[in-house]
Amino acid sequence: MIELRLLRYFVAVAETEHVGRAASQLHISQSPLSRQVRQLEELLGLQLFERARRRIRLTGDGRRLLGPARDLLARADALERGARAAGRGEPRRIRIGFVGTAVWTGVLPAALRELRAREPEVRVGLRQLGSNAQHEAVRAGELDLGLVHRVPGGRDLAAQHLLEQPYELAVPRSHPLARRPIRASQLEREPWIAIALGERDRDRWIAACGAAGFTPSIAVEVSDWMSVLALVDVGAGVSLVPAGYRAVAPAGVAMRPLPWLGMAARLWLVRRARSGSGLTDDMARWLAAASRRAPPRRAAVRRPGGGPR
Prior knowledge:
Layout: H1 4-16, H2 19-26, H3 30-44, E1 49-51, E2 56-58, H4 60-87, E3 93-98, H5 100-104, H6 107-118, E4 123-128, H7 131-139, E5 145-148, E6 157-172, E7 191-195, H8 199-212, E8 217-222, H9 225-233, E9 239-242, E10 253-257, E11 264-272, H10 278-293
Parallel strand pairs: 3-4, 3-5, 7-8
Antiparallel strand pairs: 1-2, 5-11, 6-9, 6-10, 6-11
Helix pairs in contact: 1-2, 1-3, 1-4, 6-10
Protein backbone atom coordinates (compact mmCIF):
# COMPACT_ATOMS: atom_id res chain seq x y z
CA MET A 1 0.00 0.00 0.00
CA ILE A 2 1.29 3.46 -0.91
CA GLU A 3 1.75 5.85 2.00
CA LEU A 4 0.24 9.32 1.70
CA ARG A 5 3.63 10.70 2.70
CA LEU A 6 5.15 9.40 -0.55
CA LEU A 7 2.37 10.96 -2.62
CA ARG A 8 2.87 14.26 -0.80
CA TYR A 9 6.58 14.20 -1.66
CA PHE A 10 5.79 13.34 -5.29
CA VAL A 11 3.31 16.23 -5.64
CA ALA A 12 5.75 18.71 -4.12
CA VAL A 13 8.51 17.75 -6.55
CA ALA A 14 6.09 17.69 -9.49
CA GLU A 15 4.78 21.18 -8.75
CA THR A 16 8.18 22.78 -8.23
CA GLU A 17 10.12 20.71 -10.79
CA HIS A 18 13.04 21.12 -8.40
CA VAL A 19 14.07 18.73 -5.63
CA GLY A 20 15.78 21.46 -3.60
CA ARG A 21 12.76 23.78 -3.56
CA ALA A 22 10.43 20.89 -2.81
CA ALA A 23 12.64 19.77 0.06
CA SER A 24 12.61 23.30 1.47
CA GLN A 25 8.80 23.40 1.33
CA LEU A 26 8.57 20.03 3.05
CA HIS A 27 11.25 20.91 5.64
CA ILE A 28 13.38 17.86 4.85
CA SER A 29 16.77 17.35 3.20
CA GLN A 30 17.19 16.78 -0.52
CA SER A 31 18.72 13.29 -0.31
CA PRO A 32 15.90 11.72 1.74
CA LEU A 33 13.35 13.36 -0.56
CA SER A 34 15.02 11.92 -3.65
CA ARG A 35 15.08 8.47 -2.05
CA GLN A 36 11.39 8.66 -1.16
CA VAL A 37 10.43 9.64 -4.70
CA ARG A 38 12.46 6.74 -6.11
CA GLN A 39 10.79 4.44 -3.59
CA LEU A 40 7.39 5.52 -4.94
CA GLU A 41 8.56 4.81 -8.49
CA GLU A 42 9.70 1.33 -7.43
CA LEU A 43 6.41 0.59 -5.69
CA LEU A 44 4.44 1.61 -8.77
CA GLY A 45 6.85 0.16 -11.31
CA LEU A 46 6.82 3.49 -13.18
CA GLN A 47 9.26 6.25 -14.02
CA LEU A 48 7.54 9.40 -12.81
CA PHE A 49 10.29 11.92 -13.59
CA GLU A 50 12.86 12.60 -16.29
CA ARG A 51 16.02 13.63 -14.48
CA ALA A 52 18.48 15.99 -16.15
CA ARG A 53 21.53 17.60 -14.59
CA ARG A 54 19.74 20.75 -13.42
CA ARG A 55 16.08 19.96 -14.04
CA ILE A 56 13.52 17.33 -13.16
CA ARG A 57 10.35 16.95 -15.22
CA LEU A 58 7.27 14.75 -15.13
CA THR A 59 7.00 11.86 -17.54
CA GLY A 60 3.67 10.92 -19.11
CA ASP A 61 3.05 8.46 -16.25
CA GLY A 62 3.90 11.20 -13.77
CA ARG A 63 1.39 13.60 -15.32
CA ARG A 64 -1.31 10.95 -15.19
CA LEU A 65 -0.62 10.32 -11.51
CA LEU A 66 -0.48 13.98 -10.47
CA GLY A 67 -4.21 14.76 -10.62
CA PRO A 68 -5.39 11.69 -8.67
CA ALA A 69 -2.59 12.21 -6.14
CA ARG A 70 -3.68 15.80 -5.52
CA ASP A 71 -7.31 14.71 -5.14
CA LEU A 72 -6.40 11.96 -2.67
CA LEU A 73 -4.26 14.30 -0.57
CA ALA A 74 -6.99 16.96 -0.56
CA ARG A 75 -9.53 14.42 0.64
CA ALA A 76 -7.17 13.17 3.34
CA ASP A 77 -6.50 16.73 4.53
CA ALA A 78 -10.23 17.52 4.56
CA LEU A 79 -10.93 14.33 6.52
CA GLU A 80 -8.33 15.29 9.10
CA ARG A 81 -9.72 18.84 9.41
CA GLY A 82 -13.25 17.51 9.75
CA ALA A 83 -12.26 15.00 12.40
CA ARG A 84 -10.44 17.64 14.43
CA ALA A 85 -13.38 20.05 14.12
CA ALA A 86 -15.77 17.33 15.27
CA GLY A 87 -13.48 16.58 18.19
CA ARG A 88 -13.65 20.23 19.21
CA GLY A 89 -17.42 20.25 18.84
CA GLU A 90 -17.32 22.65 15.88
CA PRO A 91 -20.23 22.40 13.39
CA ARG A 92 -19.60 21.38 9.78
CA ARG A 93 -20.21 24.16 7.29
CA ILE A 94 -20.18 24.96 3.60
CA ARG A 95 -19.98 28.41 1.99
CA ILE A 96 -21.58 28.93 -1.40
CA GLY A 97 -21.60 31.96 -3.68
CA PHE A 98 -24.27 32.36 -6.33
CA VAL A 99 -25.70 34.53 -9.08
CA GLY A 100 -29.44 35.10 -9.29
CA THR A 101 -29.86 32.60 -12.11
CA ALA A 102 -28.86 29.78 -9.74
CA VAL A 103 -31.90 30.62 -7.61
CA TRP A 104 -34.58 31.32 -10.22
CA THR A 105 -33.77 28.19 -12.23
CA GLY A 106 -34.28 26.16 -9.05
CA VAL A 107 -30.76 24.70 -9.14
CA LEU A 108 -29.52 26.07 -5.81
CA PRO A 109 -32.81 25.62 -3.89
CA ALA A 110 -33.08 21.97 -5.00
CA ALA A 111 -29.50 21.22 -3.94
CA LEU A 112 -30.04 22.93 -0.58
CA ARG A 113 -33.14 20.82 0.04
CA GLU A 114 -31.06 17.72 -0.65
CA LEU A 115 -28.37 18.94 1.74
CA ARG A 116 -30.92 19.61 4.50
CA ALA A 117 -32.45 16.17 4.06
CA ARG A 118 -29.13 14.33 4.19
CA GLU A 119 -26.97 16.57 6.40
CA PRO A 120 -29.31 18.60 8.64
CA GLU A 121 -26.53 19.58 11.04
CA VAL A 122 -24.44 21.36 8.37
CA ARG A 123 -24.32 25.16 8.51
CA VAL A 124 -24.70 26.86 5.14
CA GLY A 125 -23.31 30.29 4.30
CA LEU A 126 -24.75 31.91 1.15
CA ARG A 127 -23.46 35.04 -0.60
CA GLN A 128 -24.89 36.59 -3.76
CA LEU A 129 -21.97 37.99 -5.74
CA GLY A 130 -21.01 38.66 -9.34
CA SER A 131 -18.99 36.05 -11.18
CA ASN A 132 -15.60 37.80 -10.90
CA ALA A 133 -16.06 38.46 -7.18
CA GLN A 134 -16.88 34.78 -6.65
CA HIS A 135 -13.76 33.70 -8.54
CA GLU A 136 -11.61 35.71 -6.15
CA ALA A 137 -13.52 34.55 -3.04
CA VAL A 138 -13.09 30.90 -4.03
CA ARG A 139 -9.38 31.48 -4.68
CA ALA A 140 -9.00 33.11 -1.27
CA GLY A 141 -10.77 30.27 0.52
CA GLU A 142 -13.70 32.50 1.50
CA LEU A 143 -16.11 30.33 -0.52
CA ASP A 144 -16.11 26.58 -1.01
CA LEU A 145 -18.23 26.65 -4.18
CA GLY A 146 -19.34 29.36 -6.58
CA LEU A 147 -22.25 29.40 -9.04
CA VAL A 148 -21.21 31.81 -11.79
CA HIS A 149 -21.90 32.93 -15.34
CA ARG A 150 -18.25 32.99 -16.47
CA VAL A 151 -15.45 30.43 -16.52
CA PRO A 152 -12.48 31.68 -14.49
CA GLY A 153 -8.99 31.97 -15.90
CA GLY A 154 -6.01 30.11 -14.46
CA ARG A 155 -5.45 26.54 -13.34
CA ASP A 156 -6.12 27.13 -9.66
CA LEU A 157 -9.90 26.95 -10.15
CA ALA A 158 -11.90 24.12 -11.70
CA ALA A 159 -15.19 24.83 -13.51
CA GLN A 160 -18.09 22.47 -14.27
CA HIS A 161 -20.81 23.44 -16.75
CA LEU A 162 -24.26 23.08 -15.17
CA LEU A 163 -26.88 24.77 -17.28
CA GLU A 164 -27.50 26.66 -20.49
CA GLN A 165 -30.61 28.74 -21.15
CA PRO A 166 -31.61 30.78 -24.18
CA TYR A 167 -32.26 34.47 -23.73
CA GLU A 168 -35.84 35.58 -24.33
CA LEU A 169 -37.25 39.03 -24.99
CA ALA A 170 -39.04 40.52 -21.99
CA VAL A 171 -41.68 43.07 -23.09
CA PRO A 172 -44.74 44.65 -21.46
CA ARG A 173 -47.87 42.59 -22.24
CA SER A 174 -49.46 45.70 -23.74
CA HIS A 175 -46.58 46.07 -26.24
CA PRO A 176 -47.22 45.09 -29.90
CA LEU A 177 -44.18 42.76 -29.79
CA ALA A 178 -45.99 40.68 -27.16
CA ARG A 179 -48.53 39.52 -29.74
CA ARG A 180 -46.71 39.00 -33.05
CA PRO A 181 -43.60 37.33 -34.51
CA ILE A 182 -40.51 39.37 -33.77
CA ARG A 183 -37.94 40.43 -36.38
CA ALA A 184 -34.48 41.64 -35.43
CA SER A 185 -35.04 44.97 -37.19
CA GLN A 186 -37.99 45.72 -34.88
CA LEU A 187 -35.69 45.73 -31.85
CA GLU A 188 -33.66 48.67 -33.18
CA ARG A 189 -36.42 51.13 -32.27
CA GLU A 190 -36.90 50.05 -28.66
CA PRO A 191 -35.38 51.50 -25.47
CA TRP A 192 -33.38 48.78 -23.74
CA ILE A 193 -32.95 47.86 -20.10
CA ALA A 194 -29.68 46.03 -19.48
CA ILE A 195 -27.72 44.43 -16.68
CA ALA A 196 -24.78 46.63 -15.67
CA LEU A 197 -21.64 45.13 -17.21
CA GLY A 198 -17.98 45.96 -17.34
CA GLU A 199 -16.80 47.68 -20.49
CA ARG A 200 -15.42 44.50 -22.08
CA ASP A 201 -18.57 42.47 -21.34
CA ARG A 202 -20.80 45.29 -22.56
CA ASP A 203 -18.88 45.43 -25.84
CA ARG A 204 -19.24 41.66 -26.26
CA TRP A 205 -22.97 41.81 -25.54
CA ILE A 206 -23.54 44.62 -28.04
CA ALA A 207 -21.44 42.77 -30.63
CA ALA A 208 -23.53 39.61 -30.12
CA CYS A 209 -26.72 41.62 -30.60
CA GLY A 210 -25.23 43.18 -33.73
CA ALA A 211 -24.41 39.73 -35.10
CA ALA A 212 -28.06 38.77 -34.52
CA GLY A 213 -29.22 41.76 -36.57
CA PHE A 214 -29.88 44.70 -34.23
CA THR A 215 -28.03 47.22 -32.09
CA PRO A 216 -29.66 47.89 -28.70
CA SER A 217 -30.09 51.48 -27.54
CA ILE A 218 -29.54 51.16 -23.78
CA ALA A 219 -31.79 53.49 -21.80
CA VAL A 220 -30.96 52.24 -18.30
CA GLU A 221 -28.64 49.73 -16.62
CA VAL A 222 -29.48 47.93 -13.37
CA SER A 223 -27.67 45.40 -11.20
CA ASP A 224 -30.02 42.39 -11.21
CA TRP A 225 -32.57 40.58 -13.36
CA MET A 226 -35.52 41.17 -11.02
CA SER A 227 -34.99 44.93 -11.37
CA VAL A 228 -34.88 44.47 -15.14
CA LEU A 229 -38.24 42.70 -15.08
CA ALA A 230 -39.75 45.30 -12.76
CA LEU A 231 -38.76 48.09 -15.17
CA VAL A 232 -40.09 46.17 -18.16
CA ASP A 233 -43.34 45.76 -16.23
CA VAL A 234 -43.79 49.54 -15.93
CA GLY A 235 -43.02 50.10 -19.60
CA ALA A 236 -39.50 51.53 -19.27
CA GLY A 237 -38.18 49.38 -22.10
CA VAL A 238 -37.50 45.83 -23.27
CA SER A 239 -34.70 43.46 -22.35
CA LEU A 240 -33.07 40.12 -23.04
CA VAL A 241 -33.55 37.89 -19.99
CA PRO A 242 -32.56 34.22 -19.36
CA ALA A 243 -35.54 31.96 -19.97
CA GLY A 244 -35.45 30.66 -16.38
CA TYR A 245 -36.87 33.99 -15.19
CA ARG A 246 -40.14 33.28 -17.00
CA ALA A 247 -41.40 31.60 -13.82
CA VAL A 248 -40.92 34.74 -11.70
CA ALA A 249 -41.70 37.47 -14.23
CA PRO A 250 -44.41 39.95 -13.13
CA ALA A 251 -47.89 39.40 -14.57
CA GLY A 252 -47.46 42.45 -16.80
CA VAL A 253 -44.36 41.03 -18.53
CA ALA A 254 -44.44 38.72 -21.56
CA MET A 255 -41.42 36.53 -22.26
CA ARG A 256 -41.03 35.93 -26.00
CA PRO A 257 -38.68 33.28 -27.45
CA LEU A 258 -36.28 34.44 -30.17
CA PRO A 259 -35.22 31.21 -31.94
CA TRP A 260 -32.94 33.15 -34.30
CA LEU A 261 -31.01 34.97 -31.57
CA GLY A 262 -28.24 32.47 -30.80
CA MET A 263 -27.44 33.86 -27.33
CA ALA A 264 -27.55 31.83 -24.13
CA ALA A 265 -26.90 32.33 -20.42
CA ARG A 266 -24.66 29.69 -18.87
CA LEU A 267 -24.30 28.60 -15.27
CA TRP A 268 -21.00 27.14 -14.05
CA LEU A 269 -19.93 25.56 -10.78
CA VAL A 270 -16.50 26.76 -9.63
CA ARG A 271 -14.25 25.37 -6.90
CA ARG A 272 -10.57 25.28 -6.00
CA ALA A 273 -8.73 22.80 -8.18
CA ARG A 274 -6.53 21.29 -5.47
CA SER A 275 -8.78 21.12 -2.44
CA GLY A 276 -12.09 19.69 -1.43
CA SER A 277 -13.99 17.60 1.06
CA GLY A 278 -16.66 14.98 1.10
CA LEU A 279 -19.23 17.69 1.80
CA THR A 280 -18.20 19.95 -1.11
CA ASP A 281 -18.07 16.90 -3.40
CA ASP A 282 -21.58 15.92 -2.34
CA MET A 283 -22.90 19.44 -2.80
CA ALA A 284 -21.31 19.67 -6.25
CA ARG A 285 -23.01 16.40 -7.19
CA TRP A 286 -26.42 17.60 -5.91
CA LEU A 287 -26.06 20.88 -7.82
CA ALA A 288 -25.25 18.98 -11.01
CA ALA A 289 -28.27 16.70 -10.51
CA ALA A 290 -30.53 19.71 -9.89
CA SER A 291 -29.28 21.41 -13.04
CA ARG A 292 -30.28 18.37 -15.11
CA ARG A 293 -33.85 18.77 -13.86
CA ALA A 294 -34.03 22.53 -14.42
CA PRO A 295 -35.93 23.56 -17.58
CA PRO A 296 -35.20 24.73 -20.16
CA ARG A 297 -31.95 23.02 -21.10
CA ARG A 298 -32.16 23.69 -24.80
CA ALA A 299 -29.73 26.19 -26.32
CA ALA A 300 -30.96 28.91 -28.59
CA VAL A 301 -30.62 27.95 -32.25
CA ARG A 302 -29.34 30.57 -34.58
CA ARG A 303 -30.19 30.50 -38.26
CA PRO A 304 -27.60 31.49 -40.83
CA GLY A 305 -27.44 35.26 -41.21
CA GLY A 306 -28.86 36.00 -37.74
CA GLY A 307 -32.51 35.19 -38.53
CA PRO A 308 -35.24 37.41 -39.90
CA ARG A 309 -34.63 41.11 -40.27
